[in-house]
Design a protein that fits this description.
The complex is a heterodimer of chains A (154) and B (151). With 154 residues, chain A is mostly beta strands. Chain A contains one helix and eleven strands, in the order βββββββββββα. The chains are: A mainly beta (154), B mainly beta (151).
């Protein structure tokens, strides 16, 4: 089945054993992994908090939801995302990626939906992009994962 | 976050944290504490007939029976049940030299509905988590009853 829309400027983020396809507009910056401060009592997918543009940004390993835990290496990068809809403007978050992302303009003929998305709880759709296994993150699911049981804001 | 003049820099469980130095916090040196031979609490202090318990936390923030702690930081001393955290080292830092930014940890809150780390200090090199004293007290109280807070 082909994706039914036209052109989207996107980033292919290598995460775990596949790529995450995200609109470029969601990503504030991709940078190196700064020193991470552990956040006690956090789930294993929270790697810690780092400083980014003088802000604290939580860094998470979402790749472990569909593969083994990440290992931070010299090629590792963090993709800093703008706050999710409905969250405070300071609530940037970051996803650990294996390497520099690839910039793509995604067009209909190059994208095929696959039927494996049901296996992965935080992928809304699984895709084949030029032979690369990819997925579009389920932002609603991630928002629930991140904040549903977090502190109630005053 | 409460506007305070000083923060306590606490080192325990192999990590450094900051906490606002509030009026209902008191610090006791180890020599004023009675080490507990058994139970979740590692030490206690008798105050006017009452027993204030204090906990040493391991890297996973579960109670540990002993450690290189030098001081007890008691929280909520004007309330009915003060509770203490045992720390390896402690410094008093002026707030004016710090920049505390708001922070929302990701994932389930260790104390349901409340933020244990509502801020991060960004000026002193690596980010340093800022503890909410009242939420920390709730966490420590839950250890006493072993009510299953934490992970």
């Amino acid at each position: 089945m082909a994706l039914a829309n036209d052109r989207v400027h996107a980033l292919l983020l290598p995460v775990g054993d596949r790529y995450l396809l995200v609109p470029s507009a969601l990503v504030a910056e991709v940078g190196t992994v700064e020193a991470l401060t552990p956040v006690p009592l956090s789930p294993a997918w929270v790697l810690g908090v780092m400083g980014w543009r003088s802000r604290p940004v939580a860094v998470c390993d979402v790749g472990r939801f569909w593969g083994p835990p990440a290992i931070i290496g010299p090629k590792s990068r963090v993709a800093v995302f703008y706050p999710l809809p409905g969250r405070a403007p300071t609530e940037f978050f970051a996803i650990l990626v294996n390497a520099e992302p690839q910039s793509r303009t995604i067009e209909t003929p190059s994208v095929l939906l696959t039927d494996e998305d049901a296996v992965h709880p935080y992928l809304a759709v699984s895709l084949d992009i030029d032979g690369k296994r990819a997925g579009i993150p389920d932002l609603v699911g991630l928002k629930e994962l991140f904040y549903e049981t977090a502190a109630i804001k005053a | 976050m409460t506007d305070v003049r000083h923060y306590l820099q606490l080192r325990f469980s192999g990590q450094v944290f900051l906490m606002p130095n509030l009026p209902d916090i008191v610090v006791e040196p180890r020599e004023n504490m009675l080490v507990e031979p058994k139970g979740q609490a590692a030490a206690r202090r008798s105050v006017q007939g009452a027993s204030w318990v204090a906990y040493a936390l391991g890297p996973d923030w579960t109670p540990v029976p002993e450690g290189p702690w030098t001081r007890a930081v008691f929280l909520g001393i004007h309330g009915a049940r003060p509770v203490g955290l045992l720390v390896d080292d402690l410094k008093l830092l002026p707030a004016i030299g710090l920049r505390i930014e708001p922070f929302t940890p990701l994932g389930p809150a260790p104390v349901p509905g409340r933020n244990l780390f509502p801020g991060v200090e960004m000026r002193q090199g690596n980010p340093t988590l800022v503890l909410a004293a009242d939420v920390l007290a709730s966490y420590l109280h839950a250890l006493e009853g072993n009510h299953g807070l934490g992970q």
